[in-house]
Amino acid sequence: MVDILNADLHCHSNVSDGTLCPEDLAARAHARGVQLWALTDHDEIGGQQRAAAAAAALGMAYLTGTEISVTFAGETVHVVGLGFDAGDAALQAGLARTRGGRELRAREMAAGLAKVGIEGAYEGALKYVGNPDLISRTHFARYLVEIGACRDTPEVFRKYLTEGKPGFVPHAWATLEDAVGWITGAGGMAVVAHPGRYKFNANEEYALFSHFKDLGGRGVEVVTGSHTPADYAKYTELAQEFDLYASRGSDFHSPAESHTDLGSLPLLSPQLRPVWAALADRIQR
Ligand code: AMP
Ligand code: MN
Ligand code: MN
Ligand code: MN
Fold first, then answer.
1. Which of 11, 12, 14, 17, when mutated, tests ligand 1's pocket best, judged by the most ligand atoms within 8 Å of its CB?
2. Low-confidence residues of the chain: pLDDT under 50
């Protein structure tokens, strides 16, 4: 019998597009009752040692983590990796390659924004970047709020940073095969992040999960900050249908921006097999 833990296996530090450093995130997770934590920065594992050390100092169990950007069927899909060996050379090289196009993309985003009268967005976004390799749409969103172009970051995404909007630049990320391969090759588990967010119809979603399983993917986020209670029910069923382990994570980015704090979501249903049941030997205590 596996315990239903207050696990938070999805959040971001300033090593990607969060605002807190790994140590402050660890302290916040611990203070909010998180029993098993993973830091999952986008396309980056540079914060893993600091996160693991901070968790150890607090007596909080830790799994290594990352969230890889993937292009599947023309859409961006996120794949979380958990419990991998952070020293794995192929994983490190794959993530470095995935990060590679961000700089040019950011300059093109700024050029698009300049066309609608928003000048200096590249330099503005850079002020919010903690890791020069990881300039993201979130950093642009913070700058556009700063200059009063929008009231909050969701409004910036709606008006400027999503498909068809002036600051949106299409981008080819990693393939699903690569992302799952890097994670599993490093001894970890690949997990489909926040499936409720993708604009797939039922057939496309079925194709994503079939392909993901064929490639060796083993998990799905059921309880996450961007899911509704209806999504929890839907992806509980999907986890059972595809025989996947279930994960739970807030996707916390910032005290000022995130609606869902660390460790605050409903627990996973006891009908599900949690990801930590399969990762017991990967947990750092
Ligand atoms: P990027 O990897 O540069 O495309 O940025 C993706 C990040 O933007 C996500 O991880 C979220 O943190 C953030 N994001 C995406 N869509 C939205 C939205 N509608 N509102 C607020 N933040 C968003
Ligand atoms: Mn993000
Ligand atoms: Mn994501
Ligand atoms: Mn995330």
1. 17
2. none
